[in-house]
Design a protein that fits this description.
Blueprint lengths: L5 E6 L9 H16 L2 E9 L2 H7 L9 H13 L9 E10 L4 E4 L14 E5 L1 H5 L7 H4 L2 E6 L3 H6 L4 H19 L2 E4 L10 E3 L7 H15 L7 E6 L8 H10 L8 E5 L5 H9 L4 E5 L12 E6 L8 H8 L3 E5 L13 E4 L2 H13 L7 H7 L1 H12 L17 H21 L2 H6 L11 H7 L5 H7 L1
Parallel strand pairs: 1-2, 1-5, 2-3, 5-6, 6-7, 7-8, 9-10, 9-12, 10-11, 12-13, 13-14
Antiparallel strand pairs: 3-4
Helix pairs in contact: 1-14, 7-15, 8-11
Length: about 475
């Protein structure tokens, strides 16, 4: 008898051309998982109507149909990997929230996958995908549900008005929904909130292009050529919370020591104007430029990447800089723990150490990466870590054994969890309650436009709920 392939559905909260971590990393995960083993993989991404696309996607890029969007995503990935795409792409209805600058699901997105294919669900940002979920319980639909926590939401919320109070409630809301809907949670680093049934494991890799750039630089060094001709730089979305405030403060404190150092900042964002004003006030040479793709040839010759940000869970640009063979100066922070294994990563504990490490890095050459270190940064290694952390070797012929048990204790826990899920379903089905907690109005079911664009047919009950 031929064994059936295991089906893995990866749901995520963003999509290209929005260059955010939850658009890029799940895309690579789907490609490498499908290429790695005996899996049928589908990546389920949000579909936005034109008005929302114009708010979210850069450079006025829009799509008139899901098939056009799918073609764009596939082409972007084909330009970056060297093997055939073996996964499929699907869409769920979504809308963009201006208030929280995020894409939120509309309706019951578990319906994107048929019951016959509902083996494993991977929820990229599980709290985000389940805050307002109203529909079939994820654990009832899928035999195993794995959440991957990308974002330190508590840290971002604390920066808002009444932030600490909001963070207090959000902390418990996140624990509640992830306990209800996930069998296991993978936290990319200890910078994320501690959640039920969670482990810490970095299951992300870097775009292969960065490793190729690093190999070329290493070959130049081995030939005796000068591989790096530029000094220090930083790249990131140009908002204060992405490390610009900390970086400019560090440079300001040590202007005398760093007077001969040029630092180039690259980024685009709502705080660009203020960042430029602050940079001009410094007595040292700090130049500010618009954001660009980190793989752009412009960045290949920089030797030192300075990144004081502590709001990222695992900073993608830090991993990319290390893959390109650069020296990285970053904070000794739990979000950077994964990078401690690399000799080119220097972590500072004080502003004095930041200045000291920066000057030292500019005066020395990077240590060549070993094959093992290069592999650790790759998506091949990230896929291996994910499969081990997710424990997908569990017997898929029955529900997860950690969840279903004959013991009285397990039965009691399940009863409590079912009651908790019922409560969440009740609250998430009340329009006024949804709005009070931040949901987009009238998103219990997709509207006529989303249905038409995605070819969805609403039942009579769904039509009633929508109205």
């Amino acid at each position: 008898m031929i064994s059936r392939k295991q089906h893995i559905a990866i749901f995520t909260t963003a999509s290209l051309p929005w260059m955010t971590g939850t658009a890029v990393n799940p895309l690579f995960r789907a490609a490498y998982l499908a290429n790695y083993g005996d899996y049928e993989v589908v990546l389920v991404i949000p579909w936005l109507s034109l008005k929302d696309q114009e708010l979210v996607y850069p450079n006025k890029i829009t799509f008139s149909s899901p098939s056009e969007h799918e073609g764009y995503v596939h082409q972007w990935l084909k330009d970056r990997i060297d093997f055939a795409l073996r996964f499929s792409l699907s869409f769920y209805p979504a809308k963009f929230s201006k208030d929280i600058r995020s894409i939120l699901p509309v309706g019951d997105i578990t319906e994107s996958i048929t019951d016959d294919d509902a083996d494993v669900a991977v929820l990229e940002e599980p709290e985000h995908l389940t805050w307002f979920h109203h529909g079939r319980k994820w654990k009832s639909k899928f035999r195993r549900v794995i959440g991957i926590v990308h974002t330190n939401y508590l840290e971002y919320v604390k920066r808002e008005k009444n932030g600490h109070l909001l963070a207090f409630f959000l902390k418990y809301a996140n624990s509640w929904v992830t306990r209800i809907y996930c069998h296991k949670i993978i936290r990319l680093s200890g910078a994320t909130q501690d959640l039920p049934r969670s482990i810490i494991c970095n299951v992300h890799g870097v775009n292969p292009k960065f490793l190729e750039i690093g190999k070329i630089k290493q070959e130049q060094q081995q030939r005796g050529d000068q591989g790096f001709t530029k000094g220090a730089y930083y790249i990131g979305k140009m908002v204060w919370s992405k490390g610009y405030k900390e970086l400019l403060q560090l440079l300001s404190e040590h202007q005398d020591k760093l007077s001969d150092v040029q630092v180039d900042l690259y980024g685009t964002g709502e705080d660009s104007g203020q960042v430029q004003q602050s940079a001009r006030k410094l007595k040292m040479d700090v130049k500010v430029y618009p954001g660009r793709d980190h793989a752009d040839a412009l960045f290949h010759d920089y030797k030192v990447f300075v990144n004081p940000s502590t709001t990222d869970v695992v900073c993608t640009t830090t991993a990319e800089a290390l893959a390109m063979g650069k020296i990285v100066i970053c904070a000794d922070h739990v979000s950077n723990d994964f990078f401690k294994q690399f000799p080119n990563c220097h972590m500072y504990c004080s502003s004095n150490e930041f200045a000291k490490f920066t000057l030292k890095a500019l005066a020395e050459e990077p240590v060549p990466l070993t094959d093992e270190q290069r592999h650790e940064l790759s998506w091949e290694a990230a896929t291996e870590r994910f499969l081990a952390a997710a424990e997908l070797n569990h017997n898929m012929s029955e529900k997860d054994p950690s969840y279903v048990s004959k013991s009285k204790t397990r039965k009691l826990r399940r009863s409590i969890e079912d009651a908790s899920a019922y409560l969440h379903q009740t609250v998430s089905g009340i329009e006024t309650a949804r709005r009070a907690f931040g949901a987009i109005p009238k998103t219990l079911q997709p509207d006529e436009q989303l249905c038409e664009e995605l070819g969805l047919v609403l039942t009579e009950r769904q039509k009633f709920l929508r109205h």
